Amino acid sequence: MIGCHLGRCFQVTVAGGSYQDGLTAILQGVPPGMLLTEQEIYSDLLLRKPGADELSSPRKEPDLPIIYTGLNAADTIAGAGNKNHTNGTPVSILIPNLDRHFIHIKQYQDTNRTPRPGHASYASFQKYGPDDDAIGAGIFSGRYTCTIVAAGSVAKKILKFCGIEVFSYIKEMAGVRCDDLCHGDALKYTEAYKRMRRDCDPFYQEIYVKGRITGQMRFLEKTTVLAEVEKEIDAIRAKAPKIDAASIREKYGVHHVVNCPDLAAAAAMVDACNKITATGDSSGGVVEVVATGVPAGLGEPVFAKLDAELGRMLGIGAVKGVEVGAGFAVKDMTGIQSNDAMHAENGKVVFESNNAGGITGGLTTGQPIVVRLTVKPTPTIDKPQKTIDKYTLENKDLAAITRRDPTIVGRIWPVAENYMALVLLDHLMAHYGYQGLKERVASSK
């Protein structure tokens, strides 16, 4: 399987499947000297994991990570204070599957002869044959995106050291769209939303705030805790505070379910989605991803243009379209409307619009990078569908019986945010190297 690798300077390789023992992300290019903990990685994973709200799958995976390699196991000399700092070697992050019970495996076994329309199950059977990892769709399940989130959380931390912020939110869901927003306001909102989710997540509180897993523990000690957690999932979930929409809005200024900075639109999104779900069907939407503080000049000509690299976010399951800046809307513009005019102001270049989404010629302009992803409806639905028996090619009828997400939009935005961080960090490292060499050559003349 050669498609599970991304990047040149900052490289990520992922492995695992929905019902295998777990999933793994291996990162190469992480600089030494950075404190890294499972708690901060989980802060991003909890935003993507299933079972968190009424719009996500009831699967109860806690998505608790373990950093297996890439950190100093102790201070390198007495009193150095660099235990748990990255040491420049590959960082590997393990995410064990803790909610995989036979009853759910049996449901897949009972329906795996009949591929689910809209899923990869027919195509993957044609590629891999009878040994295709069809329990829970294997690596073609949306579950694999936890590896992108884990890796991207590390990339975002590095980018912040360089003054770059990457964030995402729901722009549209079930046909309800929010208005355009100031990037600064949107960033503040998403930060408040993430803080609310951490405060309300029972696993974050039970495992990390209470110190059941700490950076002082060895790998086997951490896995022992996870073995205990596997038996306590329901009990820990029961400790979650009751979510009251009004109190959440008063305390955090956010919607209690949807990460959309337009509160009225967020409420309308949930209502529209629930109406569709009540019919047994599902809905899609649009996710917007923004990066600020990106220096001008990132990207490479022709095959490695930055917008083309960001277009690789089509690799996120359920994403069917990627647009940068004004995107498809440029077809209805004239040149004067589409072009981003610029002028000099106090010794700096100021753009008067950002239809290019911060990228021209495949290179960044220094403006915010703006990318939108269209997300298809969840293909697993509670409606009869036409399919076939993949072994005999007999025509069959299929009704979904497995656990499902009413919509995937609310679980895609954390993936998109972290995917963009991986791409940007890869190009930033190349950019710093190239600019450094350019300056060295210029100074030698």
Describe the structure.
This protein has twelve helices and 16 strands. The strands form five sheets. It has a five-stranded antiparallel beta sheet, with helices on both faces. The chain has a single domain, classed as Chorismate synthase AroC (Chorismate synthase, AroC fold, 4-Layer Sandwich). α4 crosses α12.
Summarize the structure.
This protein has 445 residues and is of the alpha+beta class. Helices cover 36% and strands 17% of the residues.
Total number of beta strands: 16
What class, by secondary structure content? alpha+beta
Mean pLDDT: 92
Q: What is the total domain count?
A: 1
Estimate the helix proportion, in percent: 25-40%
Biggest sheet architecture: 5 strands, antiparallel
Q: Proportion of β residues? A: 15-25%
CATH superfamily: Chorismate synthase AroC
